[in-house]
Amino acid sequence: MKARSLIVILFLIGISFSGQSQSLLNKLKQKGEDKLIKKTVDTVFGEDDNSGTTNNPSSPTSSGTTNTKGSGLIIEPPDVVKNIGEAETAFGTKNYSSAKYALRQAMVGIEMEIGESILKSLPTSVDGLQMDPDADKVTSMNYGFVGLTMERRYSGKDKELQVTIGNNSALLGAVNMMISGGAYASSSTEQNYKQTTFKGYRSVIQYDESSGYTLSVPFGQSSIMVVNGINYESEPAIMSAAENFDIEKIKSELGEK
Amino acid sequence: MKYTCIFIALSLISTITIAQEFSSSMSEARSSYKSGNLDDARFALEQAMHTLDQEIGKEILKVLPTSLQGAEYKSDEDNVVGTNLGFAGLFVDRNYYADEKSATIQIIGDSPLMAGINAILALPNFVTSGDSDQKRIKVDGYKALLTKNTRDDGVESFSLQIPANATLITLECLGYSEAQVTTMANQIPVTQVVKLAQ
Lengths: 257, 198
Hints:
Number of strands of chain A: 9
Helix content of chain B: 40-55%
Structural class of chain B: alpha+beta
Order of helices and strands of chain B: HHEEEEEHHEEEEHH
Largest sheet of chain B: 9 strands, antiparallel
Largest sheet of chain A: 9 strands, antiparallel
Number of helices of chain B: 6
Helix content of chain A: 40-55%
Largest interface: A-B, 29 and 32 residues
Number of strands of chain B: 9
Radius of gyration of chain B: 20 Å
Distance between the termini of chain B: 36 Å
Strand content of chain A: 15-25%
Shape of chain B: elongated
Oligomer: heterodimer
Structural class of chain A: alpha+beta
Number of helices of chain A: 6
Order of helices and strands of chain A: HHHEEEEEHEEEEHH
Radius of gyration of chain A: 27 Å
Shape of chain A: globular
């Protein structure tokens, strides 16, 4: 037993030592690489070799090369009609895996269009805050827990308002059931959430010192609208800002009853 | 001979019906999309996916073994469901019986349980070796998690979970030893099933 313990201890020391020596080697290698990069950059830009500072804001990768080119990915929603055709062809030849892939792509394409259309229908300014067009986001997972989500952010001065709409997710159905089942009913005067009503829909409003007010409104069979307001003075203020969103119109566009 | 002909005829009718359903859903999706009715187009595609999952399920059943360690499958208990609920797109199960012993093979596509099982399988061996009822084995080249359960009356059962891509294959065995369960697991054509389900 003692001999076995000794072997285990020696083995662990061995691992530890080899880990340390490996780490030391990596550090030396990194230092060598850093010096080489600095020398190359200085040669190219004519910097003084002894100036101890660098103004390059981007950090180099582990290989030591910093990316300075590239214009990002070409993001285009999948071609729905083309993918429907491909799914039909693949199904006809019993290539079910390809048929499934093409079907999913077609669904992603349709969901992206639904999302874009809903974002277009949202107001461009709310409560004096202007929308941030770069922050508009549509995500379609097609399957899994997420479903289709749309996000828009409004900002101005020290305030910010974000609206997120989720649709067609199994999880949202569960949230809907929890709220309508009274899981969030008020039970204490000190809790930071409570049930409320928004345009006739049972909802939950929460307050958190760091993230502000969050109003969650489940609607239809599997949809939810979440409005998050930062630096809003009071509950009536955030409720009034949320009134700007036409939930009936969103519901109709999502095909929800 | 007569029964074989009837079986072939029924299978053919079923395949034709599924192909017609799929084709009809796709036509509806295309026309709804072209007329700008996105929600109806999405619903039609979901229907097509449901039909496709059912067809995939039937193909999977064809490659599953008909007997495991002497236990024979019950064809009338074969089950294929294209749930289309998001978290479980495809569900296939087959049951096997031999006296008081039984086994079940379940296949779930797009399973939400995948992350949890993969996390356990990714842990170093010494972390999981503390639980004597759980061990990792390999089936058809795939890492799998074997769990032993003991009922109050002392009867042992085993559960083997094989996660692969987005598919989870589960083998539940009652009344078999660990060695027998491992042999049974190796009868499952995992690679073929995963290829069909993905």
